[in-house]
Amino acid sequence: MSNTLRFPDQRPPEYIKLDNEPIFNAERHLQLENPKSTTDLSELGYKEDEIEACPSSFGVCSSFRILSPEGVAVMRDICLKMHDNRNISVGTGVNRLGSYIRGAGYRSQFIKDFCDSPELSKHLSEIAGVQLARHSVPAVACGVNYAPEDITRAVDNWHTDSVAFDIVMMMSDPAKIDGGEFQYFQGTKQEGQTLLGIAGEEGIDAELPAERIKTVPFPGPGYGFMQQGNMIFHRACRLKKRAERITMVPSFVVVPPHAADATNSINMAGWDDPCLPAELTRHEAWRAAARLEKLVEEVSLHDSPKRLIEDLDRALAPLLAYRDRLSKDIK
């Protein structure tokens, strides 16, 4: 699992566990290839100090093969079987996603093992230029998006992600889909948000200048691309005709756990997913513990009280900020 936080032993009761699934086998179900092109954050207009604050200068890449034909067949079948156990669309779903599953690893052992596979995390780490592992928050570690029932709605509006790295993998045959393209803004997220009059990670169904939009094509099912999603302003367009459009969106966290973390627990605390507050608590406690352990090793007996306070604040700030956000929901 590449040093990520273990998956919880419990499961939200709302999520139905699939039975009689095939066993994931990396040799049979993966067919990992490299992207033909990548785009660095600097090419999108980010400044040097903004890039230095990120774990990697990697921005987004072209699609590349991830699953073998057998892997595609198994994964698509699982996604279809989970369709009737989708998340209830409130919270973030009202503004953005029309039909989706988060926490798919609770429902499917095959998906959990796919997201946990060291072969996948190693391959993605090499592309991103930083060590990655399956995300420690199960809700975002394994997601599936479906076409909305109302095709006048975008599959997913313009937004940025609450995690740094994710892949978007097409599970349907793209040759049979009219519309539903995945696109990103060729500029910084701040510029895109300013043009649309929004802030933060909220989504909006609106248009940006066509000459500033890049479409990422998928050659076939089982192909996907990776992005540093909290830095890439992106969307999935409306379907022009009703069709099956299933994408899997696994997310990844930077490891080791004391590394800088872009997971936006404050934003995710407002989502409606069952057990998400506990998932986020596990994540923030895990990262804080790692930062404190590193601090134990690095403290010098000659450090000033001011320096020590600053070090403690850095180690504890994300955890305490999440604690304060969580307290707002207590009535």
Number of extended strands: 13
CATH topology of the domain at 26-256: Jelly Rolls
Low-confidence stretches: 89-95
Question: Globular, elongated, flat, extended or rod-shaped: what is the shape?
Answer: globular
Mind telling me which CATH architecture of the domain at 26-256 this is? Sandwich
Mean pLDDT: 93
- Over all CA atoms, what is the radius of gyration? 20 Å
Our measurement of the CA-to-CA distance between the termini, rounded to an integer number of angstroms, reads: 38 Å
* CATH class placement of the domain at 26-256: Mainly Beta
What structural class results from the helix and strand content?
A: alpha+beta
Helicity level: 25-40%
SSE series: HEHEEHHEHHHEHEEEEHEEEEHHH
Q: Major sheet: size, sense and barrel closure?
A: 7 strands, antiparallel
Question: What is the CATH homology-level superfamily of the domain at 26-256?
Answer: q2cbj1_9rhob like domain
Oligomer: single chain
- The fraction of residues assigned to DSSP E strands is 15-25%
DSSP helical segment count: 12
